[in-house]
Amino acid sequence: MVDHIDLTQRVLEQFVTLAEERHFGRAAERLSMSQPPLSQAIQRLERRLGVSLIQRSTRSVELTPAGEAFAHDARHLLQAQDAAIERTRRIADGTEGELHLGFIGGLAYTFLPRVLRAAHDQLPRVRLHLHQHYSAGLAAMVRSGELDVAFVRGPLADPEGLTLHTITTEQVAVALPETHPLAQRPSLCLADLATENFALPSQATLTDLAEQVMAACRAAGFAPRDAARADSLPGLLSHVAAGNCVCLVPEQVCDGALPGVTFRTFEGTPQTPILSVLAAIRAGREDPAVNRLLELLSADRTDM
After folding, report:
1. For residue 37, how many other CB atoms are within 10 A of its CB?
2. What kind of architecture, by CATH, is found in domain 100-167+280-303?
3. Fewest 10 Å CB contacts: which of 16, 50, 104, 158?
4. Contact present, 278 and 149 (Cβ < 8 Å)
5. Residue 177 · residue 221 · CB < 8 Å
């Protein structure tokens, strides 16, 4: 069993400096100390180790083979100490670490890539692990601690135990078969869809979108014709691509179209559905990296 020897950072710095200068006077000057205390510190170090580290002469200092090896390892120890201190500080201020980030599929078109790009640029030492699920499932994973933060659509059906931050909002657009007569018009109003067959989002998995679609259509004076159903945005768009119906989708989905599908925005009216994107974190939890990410998104909100 090797006896424990207390090697402080100061002792290591003293010996490494002496090893570099090979002269007590110059080493003491670099260390902002006088020569006698430095000589005494090196002697104590040799006694603790039980070996000779240096060979002294009137003009210079030479390292013994043991001293050369110790100087090499001491440099690594100092570098490791510095690295540990810096990493600890980065983690404490949220600029390094790991985050498990949840998202709903509809945000993968433009929102999520922008989040990842901004995080890569501004928080390059924070590693992001992505998990896709539906809003309700993501909320449960945040509550259980499986996720650090989740991007969901609001309003969230069950916000208990969560702190919600509104990140951005977006309008709803209509997806049409590219051969549809309404596809020739640059923009539409909801009332133009009153006689169309709709692919409707599942209430269970696309709750927020389903509620917005029904409320907006009612406000425009009609109930959407229920011609097809889907529990995901790709499913809704597949119905449209088949030429059977139209559907309403978040506007950012327009950037990831299927062949055979075209999109049109709505003229600005009070009935135009507005969807919100929320960041959900567990209530009462403080995580510096999460806070950094939310601050970053808040600063870039106009670009989201």
Report:
1. 12
2. 3-Layer(aba) Sandwich (3.40)
3. 50
4. no
5. no
The CATH code of the domain at 9-92 is 1.10.10.10
Asked if 16 contacts 30 with a C-beta cutoff of 8 angstroms, the reply is no
Q: What is the rounded distance in angstroms from the CA atom of residue 158 to the CA atom of residue 284?
A: 17
What is the tens place of the pLDDT at every residue in 124-173? 988 999 999 888 889 999 999 999 999 998 778 788 999 999 998 888 89
Bridge partners (DSSP) of residue 130 are: 101
Site of tokens 């404490």? 92
In the three-class reduction of DSSP (H, G, I as helix; E, B as strand; rest coil), residue 283 is classed as coil
Residues 290 and 222: their CA atoms lie apart, in Å, by 43
Rounded to whole angstroms, the Cα distance separating 101 from 296 reads 15
pTM, rounded to two decimals: 0.68
Q: Specify the residue for token string 């998990």.
A: 131
